[in-house]
Amino acid sequence: MQYSAEKVRSEFDQTESLCPVCLALVDAFLIVRDGRVIMEKTCEVHGKFDVLISSDADYYRWALKFNKPGTMPKSFGTASKSGCPYDCGLCPEHKQHTCLGIIEVTESCNMRCPTCFANSSVGKSLELGQVESMLDAFVRYEGNPEVVQFSGGEPSIHPQIIQMIRAARARNIKIVMLNTNGTRIARDEGFVQDLSELNVTVYLQFDGFKKSTSETLRGEDARETKRSALENLLKHNVNTVLACTVQRGVNEDEYGAVVDYAFRNQHVKGVVFQPTFYAGRHPDFDPLDRVTLPDVVKGVAAQSSFGLLQSDFFPIPCCSPNCSTATYVYVDGGNATPLTRVIDHEDYMNYFSNRALPDTEYFTKRTSLETLYSASAVPGSEKILMSYCTACDVLLDLGELAQKVKMILVQPFMDSWNFDVRRVTKCCVGEITPDCKIIPFCAYNNVYRGPRT
Ligand code: SF4
Ligand code: SF4
Ligand code: SF4
Q1: Of ligand 3's atoms, which has the minimum distance to the CA of residue 440?
Q2: What's the CA gap between 271 and 388, in Å, rounded?
Q3: Which residue ranges have their beta carbon within 6 Å of ligand 1?
Q4: Do 200 and 238 contact (CB within 8 A), yes or no?
Q5: pLDDT for residue 116
Q6: Which residue among 425, 426, 439, 441 has the greatest number of ligand 1 atoms within 8 angstroms of its CB, and so is best to mutate?
């Protein structure tokens, strides 16, 4: 596809990154080579590294136009002393508040995936009181935080996970998500009933339908577990999002099948594709041959039977616009209408254009699009459905919309290889730590996450 040719950055750009061996901060240069964006960086001790950042330089440059000015948090957790990324807390140099807070309630897991950025096996768990303090800190930093995600390890095996979800609800946090491999959901219907009553959105690890995909990414054939989990989630009408890890040469041929499944099942509100990032436990890889954001977009467009196009995806502007991209699609039986075909996103979201005399209607539409394209956007939530109606200028029944509006999000997190300091300073996905700091997710995984105990 051809993106509009306006060039907002030179082809030669400079940032800072990490040495993937010793994690020292190093200068990094972004260059365009054969239509791809490559990061070149040199560590004085460990030498030179070339890393693929994006397989599509035109898309990369086009996306930079949609960089929304940041909104500051109510308060910061640390001072700026050593420089980014070593002051996380958030520190006053950070350029965005936290749209989505993550709490890892346990290091333990009931699976042992060969690919696991959290490197989970057996480890420590948090007490309920600790989680309550972390939630209180989130409220202090954000004022009215909107979304918290309980994660791990495997959060569902924590004996107090339901009390933790209730503690988030008691603090008026509107959306609570559970990031889970689905093992307990497949086996414990009482637990699923509790999740339904508490209106929890389940992020279900779901990497595809092939046996080989499951065996490579999860170390076992987990397909029957996923099938049972999805059945229970449907039975108890739990808002479900499929979280699909994508690995080069493993399941790139399953984009279309996963999207089509989500589009055909009313309780599945969306899919999040997360290309493997090489933190924690992971296989060997070639840093110049990895799945990047445009690869997923192109794969979905080529494989889905619902006629999606690459141009139906739009960058999420609250963080760095090359951090993630999304599309909303209205699905009615076999027909799919992406939101990009209803409203010209670029017209409303280009933060560099000097639009003459913007009016109230313009700002209302822009706000609704910014709500939809945000790291705090949770598919199927009332806020998202209402913003969808505003963006489209229609008033539809929210119950019906909840079954028909689907979101696809592509979210390639950074590892020490492709780490870009400029991107992490505008990160809006934060790990809330037991000492009540907020650490941007990509900084946390590369710089702060200690070895498992
Ligand atoms: S990532 Fe943000 S909070 Fe962390 S050191 Fe950099 S600017 Fe500060
Ligand atoms: S990837 Fe998730 S399910 Fe797999 S071992 Fe890690 S925490 Fe457990
Ligand atoms: S988590 Fe990483 S990829 Fe996502 S917004 Fe933050 S810096 Fe960007």
Answers
A1: 6
A2: 17
A3: 84-85, 87-91, 93-94, 424-425, 440, 443
A4: yes
A5: 87
A6: 425
Q: Residue 193: its pLDDT value, please? A: 98
Ligand nearest to the CA of 219: 2
**Ligand 3 atom index nearest CA of 412:** 3
> Nearest CA to 323 among 132, 95, 80?
95
The finding on whether 319 has its CB within 6 A of some atom of ligand 3 is yes
In DSSP terms, 49 is beta-bridged to 41
Query: With a threshold of 0.90, does the pTM exceed it?
Result: yes
Long-range contacts formed by 294-301: CB under 8 A, 24+ apart: 294/54, 294/55, 294/56, 294/59, 294/60, 295/55, 295/252, 296/246, 296/255, 296/410, 296/412, 297/59, 297/325, 297/410, 298/56, 299/252, 299/255, 299/256, 300/255, 300/256, 300/259, 300/273, 300/408, 300/410
| Cα 55 to averaged position of ligand 1 atoms, centre (Å) | 27
Give the strand pairing for 147-151 and 175-180: parallel
Mean pLDDT, consecutive 10-residue stretches, the chain (453 aa), reads 46 88 95 93 97 96 92 94 95 96 96 85 91 98 96 96 98 97 98 97 98 97 98 96 97 98 95 91 88 98 97 96 97 95 91 68 90 93 94 87 96 96 96 97 91 47
Q: What's 65's DSSP letter?
A: T
Tokens of 63: 């996306």
According to DSSP, the β-strands at 429-432 and 100-104 are parallel
Cβ atoms 45, 30 nearer than 8 A: no
